[in-house]
What does this fold into?
Amino acid sequence: MSRILELKECLALHPYTRQLRPGARANLAEITSVYTHQFINIVKSEMYWGAYMKVLVAYMSRTGNTKKVAEAIYGVIPEPKEIKRVEDVTTLEGYDLTFLGFPILRFGPDGKTKTFLETHVKDKTIALFVTHMAPEGVPELQEWLQKFRDAAVGANILGFFDCQGEIHGLMKTIVRLNRDPHVRESIQTSQGKPDTVRLERARTFANETMNKLKP
Ligand SMILES: Cc1cc2nc3c(=O)[nH]c(=O)nc-3n(C[C@H](O)[C@H](O)[C@H](O)COP(=O)(O)O)c2cc1C
It folds into this structure.
């Protein structure tokens, strides 16, 4: 009976759930006699899922916005997991899913981002997340975001998330000089982003993406 409680505890603690303790598999026969088939099926699928899924969160970030989103995503992912800067990633081999995050730089992915995607993501399961100073939903954004999908040739893209990220430093000065008032407004609207609301959306995105992997 104590083993059943342990299993239940694990499931309650880890909603998706990750780590059943060593020995849990051996005790399945023991608990079948006591518990409902429904519960057993949950345990079996969670064991399978938890035992095999390895997730990487990799991000490129100059001023910290994409890093914040990466850390929010990483926070809700079950073990085994890793978080790295894209610059430190040599391969996506060995990961069942990789969350890849980048900023928009000049209306789409910059050269390094394109090279990374073109080199590493073919035949891999990935989810993309992107930050940008433009408010979510402005029409031109869709075209810029599409360029990230286009660069991820041959990847199985499980999900895509984007949110506004504050414009910093020299770029802020450059944007201030822009003739288009809508572009200049982004300085104000992007301030403090990604905020708690957006980071929570990123967590939801991560959870939903992880759910797509479940057997
Ligand atoms: C050189 C440069 C170009 C940028 N170009 C765009 C752009 O075309 N569209 C946009 O919405 N944001 C643009 N941004 C803003 C960044 O995408 C945004 O601030 C992002 O959140 C930065 O992420 P990071 O802090 O992770 O580097 C640009 C920023 C820089 C520095």
Q: What stands out?
A: Residues 1-6, 8-34 have pLDDT under 50 and may be disordered. The pocket of flavin mononucleotide is lined by residues 61-67, 103-107, 131-134, 165-167, 171 (CB under 6 Å). The longest strand covers residues 156-164.
